[in-house]
Automatic annotation (TrEMBL):
InterPro entries, sorted: Spore_V_AE, SpoVA
Transmembrane segments: 6-24, 83-112
Protein name per its UniProtKB record: Stage V sporulation protein AE
Coiled coil: none
Originating species: Evansella cellulosilytica (strain ATCC 21833 / DSM 2522 / FERM P-1141 / JCM 9156 / N-4) (Bacillus cellulosilyticus)
Superkingdom of the source species: Bacteria
UniProt entry keywords in alphabetical sequence: Membrane, Transmembrane, Transmembrane helix
Keyword Membrane on entry: yes
C-alpha cells in the first residue's frame, strides 16, 4: 500500500507544480521556489513528517523535501546550539546532496559536449 500512497502524494505534488506553471503562469524557477517554501512551511508547522511517514518516497523525492530538510536541520540544531545552530543546521543537513549535485554535474560537463 505504501507504493500507492507514494504514487498519489508524489503525483499531487507534481500536479500542484504543473498547475502553478500552466494556470498561474509561473516560470519553472518560481514554481520550484514555491514548492521549496511550501515544504519548509509544512515542516515548520509539523505536517511534512507525517506526510513522509504516510507516503515515503512520494514525499521525500520531490523538491518540497528540500525545504523540509532545510527547516528540519535548522530546527534540530537550534535546539542544541541556539541561534547559531539555525545557520549550521541548514548546511549540515543539505551539504551532502548539494555537494553530490555539484560533483556529478561537473563530471557530466567533462564527459558530454554541451550544445549551444
Amino acid at each position: 500500500m505504501i507504493f500507492v500512497y507514494a504514487f498519489i502524494v508524489g503525483g499531487i505534488i507534481c500536479v500542484i507544480g504543473q498547475v502553478l506553471m500552466d494556470i498561474f503562469k509561473l516560470t519553472p524557477a518560481h514554481t520550484m521556489s514555491t514548492l521549496v517554501v511550501a515544504g519548509a512551511i509544512l515542516d515548520g508547522v509539523g505536517l511534512y513528517e507525517p506526510l513522509i511517514n504516510l507516503a515515503g518516497a512520494g514525499a521525500t523525492v520531490p523538491i518540497t523535501s528540500f525545504g523540509n530538510s532545510l527547516v528540519h536541520g535548522a530546527m534540530a540544531e537550534a535546539e542544541q546550539h541556539g541561534i547559531i545552530g539555525i545557520i549550521t543546521g541548514i548546511f549540515e543537513v543539505t551539504s551532502a546532496g548539494i555537494s553530490a549535485a555539484i560533483i556529478f554535474s561537473f563530471l557530466a560537463a567533462l564527459v558530454f559536449k554541451p550544445k549551444g
